[in-house]
Specification:
Layout: H1 4-27, H2 35-41, H3 44-61, H4 71-122, E1 125-129, H5 140-152, E2 155-159, H6 166-187, H7 191-208
Parallel strand pairs: 1-2
Helix pairs in contact: 1-4, 3-4, 4-6, 5-7
Length: 210
């Protein structure tokens, strides 16, 4: 049967693993990741050496003489203290990082909301997306025609590059909440389908000429 200190050591070790595991979700907020990504992201090797380091430190500090306490008892108590410290640090770091991410997201969302109001006023709605530098599928003239169709409906698509900014992606949703009712009022119902049909016709015409 486990003694009390061993039991609490196992509990704290389990909590460290749980906080580290679920902490990946909070630290990477607002990025949505699944359980397999969490397992992949977790730095298991570093965690192993961290636990190994705590055991070694506990073994060393347990060498210091204390009255009426066995070496094994000293070792487990020191290990428990270290486990609690690591648990508190991991928890506090996770919460502070999550709070920072939330604060940054709110700031970016407010910027997108203000930008949406300006774009509606200027009749120049911009949808941003991360797409890198794709290989050109059509010639310049065809792309100019596609851009012209989009501008007719009051929108512009802007490629932000290869780096995916999940905060910007979330903030874009706030932007769309404001601009989409305006675009529907401006262009009528099912305007996106009409626009896409026009764009598809331009693309088809290009392919026919090849």
């Amino acid at each position: 049967m486990l003694n009390k200190i061993t039991f609490w050591n196992l509990i704290t070790l389990t909590l460290i693993l749980l906080v580290s595991f679920f902490g990946v979700y909070f630290i990477n907020y607002p990025m949505i990741i699944d359980i397999w990504e969490v397992i992949y992201i977790l730095e298991w090797e570093k965690m192993f050496f961290l636990f190994l380091g705590m055991v070694i430190l506990s073994l060393i500090f347990a060498l210091f003489p204390l009255k009426k306490m066995s070496y094994g008892n000293k070792f487990q108590k020191i290990l428990l203290v270290l486990n609690v410290l690591i648990l508190l640090y991991t928890f506090c770091y996770t919460i502070s990082t999550f709070a920072k991410n939330k604060s940054e997201l709110r700031k970016i969302e407010n910027e997108y909301i203000e930008q949406a109001k300006k774009d509606v006023k200027n009749d120049k709605v911009t949808f941003k997306f991360a797409g890198g530098l794709p290989v050109p599928e059509y010639d310049k003239n065809t792309y100019d025609k596609i851009d012209s169709i989009r501008k007719k409906y009051g929108i512009i698509y802007f490629n932000t590059g290869c780096i995916v900014d999940y905060k910007a992606i979330e903030a874009q949703k706030k932007y769309e909440i404001i601009v989409k009712p305006y675009l529907e009022k401006r262009n009528g119902k099912n305007w996106e389908a009409k626009m896409n049909d026009e764009i598809q016709k331009v693309k088809s015409d290009y392919k026919k000429d090849r």
